[in-house]
Amino acid sequence: MTNRAVQWTKPLIFLLFLTPSLLLVRALLANQLGSDPVATLTHNTGDLAVYCLLIGLAISPVRRLSPRLGFLVRYRRMVGLFAFYYATLHLLVYVFLFSGFDITSALANVKAHEWHALRQNWIDVWPTLRDDLKKRVFIQVGLLAWFLLFLLAITSPQSVMRRMGGKPWQTLHRVVYGAAILAMVHYWWLVKKGNLAPLADTVVLAVLLLARPAWSWWQKRRARPTLQTAA
Amino acid sequence: NKLPSRPGSFPAVNETVTPKQKAITYNNFYEFGTDKRDPADHAGSLHTRPWTVTLEGLCNNPKTVGIDDLLRYRPLEDRTYRFRCVEAWSMVIPWVGYSLAELIKFAQPKAQAKYVEFISFFDPKQESDAPGMIQWPYREGLRMDEAMHPLTLLTFGSYGETLENQQGAPVRIIVPWKYGFKSAKSVTRIRFVAEEPATTWDTLSPSEYGFYSNVNPQRDEPRWSQAHERRIDTSLLPHTVPTLPFNGYAEQVAGLYKGMDLIKNY
């Protein structure tokens, strides 16, 4: 694909990745998120974050399939930022809708400019949040994964990359593998035993991660000089 | 199908009833898949007629009873109960049935029978989405005095109609002061036993799901705080309410556990 074509398709890809979140908001407002809208929002934003991570991680193995696919790497930063975007939505849904925060009262307080009462809403939910974070390993793991994505997001601009230097920047951005693995651990820990829902994502991640050493191994093997032996 | 019923012998819960549409599209019934929506989509394959319930084990009147005879055995009552899932969501559901105690009296358990075991129907052909990691059929159990408690309902319907398949048709148990998984669905065998029976979730993850599993805001579950619950009602925004000991039925059932440490016996 030409440079121009990549430039041209970027906004389209951006809209494509943004659309699921817009659909979620629309479904929420239309009360079409099923019996337990909060659970649906939580699961969907979490799924979307994982999908973006997997798509981002798929780019480098896929482009090795053919030199003509090299252009794909130019979308990778955007895909990665979308993973952070959905992970952040996931976190916000947990804090404001899932944790027990009294969102109805908080919204009323915002409307009425009752900042004191709003503060009280926070104080009320704080012990629950603190307890969750202290006791529930799956939440700790999820939060750590989010934090890693946050680090990658704030270091994603080209200017930061230049200031950091290519090599350190690249090393830092390898933590995306860690974030993806933590996200899977988070998922497995949160479903009940016997529920294999995270299996599909996990297999895809495993394939994408293993593709990397497999590729280097293959490259090395090909590079090894061979001796023709006379039979 | 409409079910003839009369007002129940317990005062109804004075809280917003969960809309039926929500109650029948948000179910945990792993035999039909692990997503909450799966049972509504897949449980159509369950045949609920003909259906029999077998009373067996330590009782003087072991019998296999047809579902329609069972349904007519005692007058059906409307009982609106809170329903609290261990996953920290809850509903308010008007059930239709009669006290399980009536059927237990019919079976005439022997003096050695200290527990009642409920075995759910299982047929991999009709329930092909059941995850293989779990040993089927689903098993649950109650102590005899819990099973005999008048709140424990042999349930045939909800919202004035027969149970939807995804709710555990044609007959299930409802134990309103315990987490939802204690309320066995699509029951086909009721066995009287001397020892505490092994139950599905307790076997799978003993640290999380004990035999008693009474709703208890004091006893944390490793993954969910049990101090509050998300009430599934008509509101669009989450409606979080504090969880009550014994799901609000302490007055009726706390006496069953006198002298027991309910943190240890979770």
UniProtKB/TrEMBL annotation, chain A:
All copies of domain Ferric oxidoreductase, residue ranges: 45-183
Recorded topology in the membrane: Multi-pass membrane protein
Cofactor note: Binds 1 FMN per subunit. Binds 1 heme b (iron(II)-protoporphyrin IX) group per subunit.
Cofactor(s) listed in the protein's UniProt record: FMN; heme b
Superkingdom assignment: Bacteria
InterPro entries: Fe3_Rdtase_TM_dom, MsrQ-like
Family: Belongs to the MsrQ family.
Entries under PANTHER family matching the protein: PROTEIN-METHIONINE-SULFOXIDE REDUCTASE HEME-BINDING SUBUNIT MSRQ
Function, as annotated: Part of the MsrPQ system that repairs oxidized cell envelope proteins containing methionine sulfoxide residues (Met-O), using respiratory chain electrons. Thus protects these proteins from oxidative-stress damage caused by reactive species of oxygen and chlorine. MsrPQ is essential for the maintenance of envelope integrity under bleach stress, rescuing a wide series of structurally unrelated cell envelope proteins from methionine oxidation. MsrQ provides electrons for reduction to the reductase catalytic subunit MsrP, using the quinone pool of the respiratory chain.
Oligomer status and interactors: Heterodimer of a catalytic subunit (MsrP) and a heme-binding subunit (MsrQ).
The name this protein goes by in its record: Protein-methionine-sulfoxide reductase heme-binding subunit MsrQ
Source species: Terriglobus aquaticus
Gene: msrQ
